[in-house]
Design brief:
By secondary structure, this protein is mostly beta strands. The protein is built from no helices and twelve strands. The protein has strands spanning 17-18, 24-25, 30-32, 38-41, 46-49, 57-62, 67-70, 73-74, 79-80, 83-86, 90-98, 103-110. A four-stranded mixed sheet has the order 3-5-10-7, with no helix packed on it. It is globular, with a radius of gyration of 18 Å. The model is unreliable at 2-20 (pLDDT under 50).
Length: 111
């Protein structure tokens, strides 16, 4: 009998990294928390910040243009942690502040 045709490979997305074998390697976000406050990531990677009550934290980053930040949220069906997307090479300081005045500072280096 003739061999079965193999399924078509999906097209890689711009943020995906090609693997050495056939197919695409999917890379998840880097997760930072109160103890792990620094990360080095490639352009296109995401960093999430693991905090209690994610929707209650404000988030900012300096300088502009290195990372794009997104506030945490709760849409009623899922809870999303605050996050940052690596946009360009450089080092950014990401600051999270909650209503009680607690502040967390993270350093993200983008290569």
């Amino acid at each position: 009998p003739s061999p079965s045709p193999s399924p078509a490979s999906p097209s890689p997305s711009p943020a995906a990294s090609p693997s050495t074998s056939a197919g695409t390697q999917v890379v998840g976000p880097v997760i930072l928390d109160r103890e792990m406050t620094t990360a080095t990531v490639s352009v296109g990677r995401f960093v999430t910040f693991s905090v209690d009550d994610p929707a209650s934290w404000e988030i900012s980053a300096t300088p502009d243009g290195i990372v794009k930040v997104q506030k945490g949220s709760d849409d009623g069906s899922a809870i999303f942690n605050p996050a940052a997307e690596a946009l360009a090479p450089g080092t950014a300081t990401v600051t999270l502040t909650n209503a009680a005045g607690a502040t967390l500072v993270f350093t993200i280096t983008v290569e």
